[in-house]
Amino acid sequence: MREAIGLALRGRGLVEPNPRVGALALQGGQVVGRGWHARYGGKHAEVAAIEDAASRAAKVDCVVVTLEPCSSELGTNGKKTPPCTKRLLAAGVRQVIFGAEDPDPRHAGQARKVLEGAGLEVRGGVLADDCAEMNQPFRRWLSLDRPWTIAKYAMSLDGKTATRSGESRWISGEDSRARGHAMRASVDGVVVGFRTAEIDDPELSLRLAEGVQPLRILIDPLLELETGKKLIAQAAEIPSLIIHRDSVPAERSKLLAAKQVQLLPIAGIGDRGLDLPAAWRELRRRGLRRIMVEGGGGLIDQLCRADCLDQLLVFIAPRLIGSSQAPSPMAGLGYAQLEGAPRLSEMHWQECGDDLALGAFFLDSL
Predict the structure, then answer these.
(1) pLDDT tens digits for 81-120?
(2) Is the pTM higher than 0.85?
């Protein structure tokens, strides 16, 4: 089970809000296959371990897995894969040993019923605390009524996301940009604020990765973005949604709707603000489970203070930019006192070309 935990942690930063899971396939007490949940929406650990064993022509009689196998059907609550209980039965497994029970009360204990009902020997609770501890992000997800939200940005070693003149292409290297696009391919929506769209005119496409194009989402409270910008001009080919104040003139909304831009009116706050938690709840209601915010600093600040961020992915480039006028990843009001500033958990990092890819999670509210 400890080896399975180590396998599960290989998916950290890549699978959330889904649980991190590792599995071993055994034949006669010997490990013949290993697997882990490697990416969001990808094959589950049990299936990966069984397939690894099959590549060696091994016949699996036991599976050790860190989390109770899933038993819900494809499509249930956004589920992207068939139930692992069926795959275990189809593989002829006779014994299943798992660590933690599924923390989702809708599914907890169901796998044992299914498997034991089919005549398998099932043992649970092996290193259960250790297996549960590594899935704090999953438990956070179960408490949310909005999409799991990742903030992603690139910055210099001195914490700048652009020069004082606004130049930001490219702070990070090719490897980092490719990984960023791969993350785009794994989310349901990619979000930017008005200033980022105005200055950078991003396309937010999957130029460097394969996958399904996510919905492009713009936070533009007053519907100010010029119609020639890519998020609007390409809306007929690449779906775009603009979240705006519900008080903007109807003429502007009609103009954008004619360009096939989707619109989401939300109550305003102050002179230019939006009720972002309400907007995020509506995104979840529309079926978006996992989204990524790619700037700018003001939007990331607002989402952070509204407790609408769950995960951070930062590419740190080995260069210095300097200047007090150069932008940083978080702008806006920020925090006046350290006591109120969120402290992130589970910080992890790895080299990404010449850059450093650093990840962390917002778990303080658990």
Answers:
(1) 789 999 999 999 999 999 999 998 878 889 999 999 999 9
(2) yes
Closest C-alpha among 129, 171, 134 to residue 153: 171
Query: Which is it for strands 345-352 and 290-293: parallel, antiparallel or unpaired?
Result: unpaired
Residues 62 and 81 in one domain: yes
Task: Determine which helix (DSSP H) or strand (DSSP E) holds 291, and give its type and residue range.
Answer: strand 290-293
Clarify whether 3 is annotated catalytic.
Answer: no
Token reading at 85: 């209980």
**Within-domain flag for 366:** no
Residue 325 DSSP code:
T
Contacts of 274 (CB under 8 A, 6+ apart): 219, 221, 243, 244, 245, 266, 267, 268
Phi-psi domain of 231 (left: phi exceeds 0; alpha: psi -120 through 50; beta: other): alpha
Contact 310, 138 (CB under 8 A): no
The whole domain housing 192 covers 144-361
**Residue range 231-278, pLDDT digits in tens:** 999 999 999 999 999 999 899 999 999 999 999 999 999 888 999 999
Strand partners, 63: 25, 96
Let me know how long the chain is: 366
User: How distant is the alpha carbon of residue 61 from its chain centre?
Assistant: 34
Q: How many domains does the chain divide into?
A: 2
114 DSSP 8-state letter = H
CATH of the domain at 317: 3.40.430.10
- How do 345-352 and 355-361 pair as beta strands? antiparallel
Rg of the chain, C-alpha, whole Å: 22
Return the amino acid letter for 149: T
Catalytic residue among 46, 68, 101, 294: 46
